[in-house]
Design brief:
The chain is mainly β. It has three helices and 43 strands. It has one domain: TonB-dependent receptor, beta-barrel domain (Maltoporin, Chain A, Beta Barrel). The chain has a 26-stranded mixed β-sheet that branches.
């Protein structure tokens, strides 16, 4: 009740300020300051035919932005699976790559990789929180692997985030409060959260300094709902309160509980130092993240005859005889500390030749997940549990690019370079006598390994005439996996036994070609063709383990995904913006498919089994127009129709012809912003997706239940007012209609936002 009163007071205060005569007075003086972006001239767009989308700060005003992934969630053919504000598993899918094929998309912030090419599915989400939403100046989204500058991990696309570089002394503060009502199965409550961001920037001679702190404290709705496994046990306890409902495959189940509210606390500290050495520029970027996740309040719906909660055991309700594992409603906590360091250097090495170098190191300083084997309220609880700990885990990368801007042929430019990426993952699972303290003496599983990719590339772009342009590129990559191991303990030996995995290597070349034609001042046509190889990551090759609630079976014999991608673009420039149609086609062989099967009781079994070939065809329409229909009304609209099909699979031909999982047939986004004045705006946002499948066999056809891949139709509202003294206030709502939908886990319910910021 207190939290609701706090929200009501905050909204009342903001409305009172916004509705004063001074606030409503028209003021046509612009309030958007000039933003200097260090990497504005260095972002790799490949050829001019590369399909792309550019976002500036003005394009974001109708979005309720709490975390960095919010910035891109309305972009064409792009989906973010963020289950709640503060979700560490905010995976991204682009075009023909679904939201769990996380190794097919790349994210860079000021040249520093945020993509997490160590794990897949929900564990492979980009490390969005290493950059704060409040420091973003602009974002460019590139679709598909049409530039030799990027590896085959760009099969879906690339997100390039650039932050502003201080040019004078500046202080910034912003804070957001959000509240969500959620009701499903046996849970009905309100969860809340808040964000605080502080930054200081200044320029001393040739040196720019930027310091920031971002704190996100958030609660989530329950993420997992449990049903029991049928049992024939003779001894059962009569219970009530369980909910009888179908699962995603229309099988009737007795749902007995959920994970409860998950508490998330993330602190991010950032230091950026930019320095000009004559014609050379350098940018140092250091980010430290301290993150905590706690799921300490699972809910049991079951009650015994005395009305007390039932946490485990063999139970019966109205003829349903189920076995409830003690561990299903256990508690868990995760603590994770990460450090990212990046250095960019840029300057001329000769007349018309510019060098850009990027160095990056990402380290997991600590990542420990502690789980109990029973709920603390369960009579069988004795403190025992399981601890998952990551050892030496992270990556290092180095890249050098040369930009040749004055070649002998007029209109011809060349980008050439080399890149090195090295990844390492080591994961240990321990049986602990006390899960809260942790016990690192008794191994239950160990696995890990390393991968390396070395590449050289060249991208030639040629403006042949005022009407024609072309691009030709090639990327050569050398892949190696090494030091792989997993545990297979032999009881007769005193030590904990490990099995070594033989190292592998592979070399591939990926050609690129594009052709563009400017038919008139307003009409442009462009075609792009690209070959790409996506090499397997450490988890897919080596992550073989058995935990109390999950089993993973790795596959060290995986081959790289082999993709051929095409895009035909038709664009018309109109007053205030442009209309664009993209027709794209992707044919990918040896698709590394991670399938997870959740068994009754909650045990998850995951495998990495390749699918022979997936083919995706799509048509995308984009309309980005200012002053559309009426003056001061700006619009960003996109809709895509996608047909993604399993066309070949020799191990299991029965799935041939099926729709590929997590690929809706239709997706659409709309942002409408009305500018009442230069200081006051109001916007509407809308997201739509048709339903999809979560399984290759397409048997999960039930909608509106946990585990389903539902379609959704969500409406949001947003309004900001900028005062002349640097103060800005805002209100917003997401999922206005409080639609209940699932992407296996539940999407958030109706969420209210109250925002305040101040620049001084």
């Amino acid at each position: 009740m207190l939290k609701r009163r706090q929200l009501s007071l905050a909204i009342s205060a903001i409305l009172a300020l916004a509705c004063t005569p001074a606030a409503l007075a028209q003021n046509d003086d612009p309030v958007v300051e000039e933003v200097v972006v260090w990497g504005a001239q260095t972002q790799g767009r490949g050829a001019a035919a590369h399909p792309s989308s550019l976002l500036t700060q003005q394009d974001l005003v109708s979005i309720n932005v709490a975390t960095t992934e919010d910035v891109v969630k309305f972009e064409p053919s792009l989906v973010i699976r963020r289950r709640f504000i503060g979700d560490s598993n905010g995976t991204m899918g682009m075009r023909g790559s679904n939201m769990f094929q996380t190794s097919r998309s790349m994210v860079f912030a000021d040249g520093v990789p945020l993509h997490y090419l160590l794990q897949s599915r929900w564990n492979g989400a980009p490390r969005w929180t290493m950059v704060s939403a409040s420091e973003i100046a602009q974002v460019e989204v590139l679709y598909g692997p049409f530039s030799a500058e990027f590896s085959g991990n760009s099969m879906g696309g690339v997100v390039l985030i650039e932050s502003a570089i201080p040019q004078e002394r500046e202080f910034h503060f912003d804070s957001s409060y959000f509240s969500q009502n959620f009701s499903a199965y046996g849970f009905d409550d309100t969860v809340t959260g808040h964000k605080v961001f502080l930054s200081y920037g200044d320029k001393f001679g040739d040196t720019s300094v930027y310091l920031s702190y971002n704190r996100l404290d958030s609660e989530s709705q329950p993420q997992t709902f449990y049903f029991g496994a049928n049992t024939n046990a003779a001894a059962v306890s009569a219970v009530s309160g369980g909910i009888v409902d179908n699962d995603e495959r229309s099988v009737s189940r007795l749902w007995f509980g959920d994970t409860g509210v998950q508490d998330t606390l993330t602190d991010n500290y950032k230091l950026k130092i930019g320095h000009d050495f004559g014609e050379w520029e350098a940018l140092l970027n250091v980010a430290y993240e301290d993150r905590f996740n706690g799921s300490n309040s699972p809910n049991s719906y079951l009650r015994n005859a005395a009305g007390a909660p039932v946490w485990s055991g063999n139970v019966v309700q109205s003829g349903w005889k189920n076995s409830i594992p003690a561990a299903r409603l256990g508690v868990s906590e995760q603590e994770r500390d990460s450090l990212s360091m990046g250095l960019r250097l840029r300057g001329p090495v000769a007349e018309g030749v510019i060098l850009e170098a990027n160095l990056n190191q990402f380290e997991i300083l600590r990542d420990e997940n502690r789980l109990s084997l029973a709920n603390p309220a369960d009579p069988v609880y004795n403190g025992a549990g399981e601890v998952t700990k990551f050892g030496d885990t992270g990556w290092k990368s180095a890249e050098a690019r040369l930009f040749f801007e004055q070649l002998p042929v007029e209109g011809l430019t060349l980008i050439a370079g080399a890149r090195h990426d090295a990844y390492e993952l080591n994961m240990d699972i321990f049986s602990a006598r006390n899960h809260r303290v942790g016990d690192f003496n008794r191994y239950s599983s160990r696995s890990g390994g390393e991968t390396r990719i070395d590449a050289v590339f060249a991208q030639l772009n040629w403006e042949i005439s005022s009407r024609w342009d072309a691009g030709l590129g090639v990327r050569w990559e050398s892949f190696e996996s090494d030091s792989g191991y997993f545990s297979r303990d032999v009881a007769s030996t005193p030590q904990f036994d490990l099995v070594s995995v033989p190292k592998t290597s592979r070399r591939e070349a990926s050609p690129k070609f594009s052709l563009g034609y400017q038919a008139s001042e307003n009409w442009r046509f462009a075609w792009a063709l690209g070959k790409a190889y996506r090499f397997p990551i450490v988890e897919e090759l080596f992550s073989q383990y058995s935990a109390y609630n999950a089993v993973s079976v790795a596959n060290p014999e995986l081959q790289p995904e082999d993709g051929l991608h095409q895009n035909l673009m038709i664009e018309q420039q109109i007053a205030g913006g442009y209309l664009r149609v993209n027709v794209f086609q992707e044919s990918i062989k040896d698709v590394i498919e991670s399938q997870a099967e959740t068994l009754p009781g909650g045990l998850t079994v995951r495998t990495f089994i390749p699918v022979d070939e997936i083919e995706t065809r799509g048509v995308e329409f984009i309309a980005n127009v200012d002053d559309v229909f009426i003056p001061n009304l700006d619009m960003r609209f996109n809709v895509v129709n996608t047909d993604s099909e399993i066309v070949k699979n020799r191990p299991d031909p029965s799935i041939e012809g099926n729709v590929y999982p997590r690929m809706p047939e239709w997706r659409g986004n709309l942002l409408l912003t009305y500018n009442f004045s230069a200081r006051w705006n109001a916007g509407v946002n809308y997201q739509y997706a048709s339903d999809s499948f979560g399984r290759n066999d397409n048997t999960d056809r039930e909608d509106g239940v946990y585990g389903a891949q539902d379609g959704f139709s969500r409406v949001g509202l947003k309004s900001d007012y900028n005062f002349a003294n640097g103060l800005k206030l805002g209100l917003g709502i997401d999922n206005l209609t409080d639609e209940v939908a699932y992407v296996a886990h539940p999407w958030p319910g109706r969420t209210l936002y109250a925002n305040v910021s101040y620049d001084f």
